Every structure is written in structure tokens, then in C-alpha cells.
Description:
Number of domains: 1
Largest sheet: 7 strands, parallel
Helix content: 40-55%
Order of helices and strands: EHEHEHEHEHHEHHHE
Number of helices: 9
CATH superfamily: NAD(P)-binding Rossmann-like Domain
Structural class: alpha/beta
Oligomer: single chain
Amino acid sequence: MFEGKTAVVTGAARGIGQAIAVDLATKGADIVICDLEKEWLEETRQAVKKSGRKVVCKELDVTSHDGAQSVFQEIAAECDAIDVLVNNAGITRDGLLMRMSETDWDAVLAVNLKGTFNCTKAVTRAMMKQRSGAIVNIASIIGITGNAGQANYGASKAGVIAFTKSVAKELASRNIRVNAVAPGFITSKMTDALSEDVRNNMLGAIPLKRFGNPEDVASTVSFLASDMAAYITGEVINISGGMVM
């Protein structure tokens, strides 16, 4: 699917980002994995190497506009092209609005929304020049439904969805597609630590009666980034087991 192509994945050190990088590599892409601390990427680097694809690690603070510009200039110089960008870097700082600090609000918006803007803007010139490219943004069902205690996270992911649709309209004439996925409850250390009662209550809201896993997200991202989705842009695909329809 991706033979001869290069994909950049942000927030690739663990979880969904790691699964996306590995899935793209197994389907033929060379991978550039980015995270805030380069040392965090070693596990992902080893996993990608097993696929036999080229892998490059980059230290990237997605909240820095100039930093993103610099890193993507390096990537463009080192690779023949940047064919795929996956904006996965994200954080949470949960809390009820009346207790939420300005710092927690700003941190979540800076990584989740501004980070998506910074990296997309940084790659746009190269993709426009080559007149091709696919960008996939990782949103969340919380950006669609909202959730008590996650006003900052919900706002950031709703922003990612609106950003996706707007940029898709701007870049379509240059054959650059921009889509998003909105994961629901995905297995992680957080869900593993939940009590049985809490897990059962959460599962009760999911028609498929299971949590998703990072690979469920990764396979959908790879589809949207591939030529199989050549006529899809500006879309948001929920990966929620039917929780949001």
C-alpha cells in the first residue's frame, strides 16, 4: 500500500501513535517517528525495524511553531517526499471546569490543537509542491459528544475536527487529502486500571461490547492515508464500537 512512500507520525512513542507507525511500516512505508523526548521512541523504532522499513527518529515539541518548521525542513531534506502526516500527539489534563486551572486549559489546547496546526502547516508547502499527500488527524469522540471533566480536551478535539474540514477544503485542489478519526474507549494503562464496575458501565454504552485497541485505530488511519481512500477528504470516522453513531 505504501511502497516508496514516507509517513511522519507524531506522538509515536507509545499507544495509538506507536501502533500507527508499526501498521504503516508493515504496509510498506518508511517511517519518521516524532515525540517530545527522542529517547522515548526507542521501543517504537525497534518495532518498526522488524518490518524491514527505514525508520528515523525526531525530537519534536509540537507546541513550538518554529520547532515544527525546523524539524519538517530536516525531514524534507532527508526524504524524497513526505507522503503522509499523522497528527497523533495529544495529552489530557482532566478536571471539572470550576476547578480547571488556566495552565491545564492552555496545555491541552497547545498540544492537541495548536500542535496539529503547527505540524500541518509545516508539511503543507512540501505536499503542495509535490501535488500529493494525505494528512490524518487524531480527534476523539469527546470532540463530538463532550464529556464532563474534559472541557479542555473536548474543545481541543472539536477544534481538530473543524480544522480538518477547513484544511481539507483548502488543499483539495492540490490533491492533498485531510481526514480525521475519532476514537472512543481504547485499551490503555488507564482502562486497565479501572475497577470492574466502572469497566462494565463503560462497556454497557458500547454496542460491540468491547473496548477498542490501538490496532483498530491504526488500521483505519492506514486506510485513510492510502490510495484506497483516494476519493475521501474532510471526513471524520468514529472508531467507537458503535458508541457514537
